[in-house]
Amino acid sequence: MRAIRYHQVGGPEVLRLEEVPEPVAGPGEVRIRVHAAGVNFADTERRRGLYDAAVPLPRILGSEAAGVVESVGPGVDTAWLGRRVVALATRSYAELTTAPEKELLVLPERVSFEEGAGLLVQGLTAWHLIHTMGRLSVGQSVLIHAAAGGVGLMAVQLAKAVGAKVLGTVSTREKARLARELGADEVILYEEGDVAERVRTLTEGRGVDLVLDSVGANTWQSSLDSLAVFGHLVSYGSASGAPPPVELESLYEKSLKVSAYWLRTYHPPELQRHAREALRAELAEGRLQVRTGLVVDLAEAAEAHRQLEGRGTVGKVVLRMP
Ligand SMILES: NC(=O)c1ccc[n+]([C@@H]2O[C@H](COP(=O)([O-])OP(=O)(O)OC[C@H]3O[C@@H](n4cnc5c(N)ncnc54)[C@H](OP(=O)(O)O)[C@@H]3O)[C@@H](O)[C@H]2O)c1
């Protein structure tokens, strides 16, 4: 089968389309004929050697796939055969991949493979940021950085569904338009001046209850300055570089909370099932959209990475199998 592999860390050019052996579904696993693979910012960090660096090379990239179950391994219900599914699946930049049966989610009929490929990594992250970590509730306010990105657009929609006031930051007017279209009440362009000052103006001087920060170094201080008293800053990424260490002393004045979220932390199965089902139901009923911004053929994975890390994409980036 064909897959995207890299033999050394580096720029997007290290990604190569190669013929590799087909994977075999092991016990408790299924083999999926991939129709669409989700591209995530973390894939670009893996390729650069900034994340998961201990994994031996060459390596097939990927974290999630949408496709059709083609075969099942020992102990797996054959009813899965032929079903349209999405799954968290490593090595999904490929025509075939494997995933544990317990990770599978049936893709609703009205949802395309491309949209499905954007549901799990970014959707689950956004869901846990809003609900598990942020415990956002009606009438509260949230500031979402990179609001037109993959996780960002999901978080905007989930926060709006809660009944919160949603503020976002983005780098361009086109991104601002999209974030507003999907529910953001106010969108701030970073370049327009002091973000925290704008947040205070837009919240009658109060600040926001929750900040979701995946940008890191460049937004960290404005995130802290944007919080209302008893506010909560959740860090979940560092696209612009690692944020500075947290000075406990600096949190006292407003009694702030700073925390971190990682999708790969052990999540109690019941909680994860609940989150996945909630996302699937929202998607099936049309209340949640996966906006695909860039969809390219598998062979163009390097270009997808170039655009994603160059801040040139909105919503979900997807590789489709031609
Ligand atoms: N903790 C977890 O478990 C978890 C899970 C999934 C994703 N993440 C993190 O969440 C973030 C978003 O992931 P995603 O896949 O949805 O990507 P994305 O948001 O679609 O793309 C990254 C966005 O970050 C913004 N950005 C700001 N400064 C940047 C810089 N110096 N370089 C590149 N981008 C910059 C850009 O939006 P603007 O141009 O509007 O600023 C860019 O479009 C990433 O940091 C990722 O690592 C974490």
UniProtKB/TrEMBL annotation:
Organism, as annotated: Pyxidicoccus parkwayensis
Extract the SUPFAM superfamilies matched here. GroES-like (SSF50129), NAD(P)-binding Rossmann-fold domains (SSF51735)
Q: SMART domains, alphabetically?
A: PKS_ER (SM00829)
- Annotated InterPro entries: ADH-like_C, ADH-like_N, ER, GroES-like_sf, NAD(P)-bd_dom_sf, QOR-like, Quin_OxRdtase/zeta-crystal_CS
Q: Which domain of life does the UniProt lineage start with?
A: Bacteria
| Domain (Enoyl reductase (ER)): residue spans on this chain | 10-319
Keywords in alphabetical order: NADP, Oxidoreductase
- Coiled-coil regions, chain positions: none
Q: Kindly provide the name given to this protein in its UniProt entry.
A: Quinone oxidoreductase
Which one Pfam family would you cite for this protein?
A: ADH_zinc_N
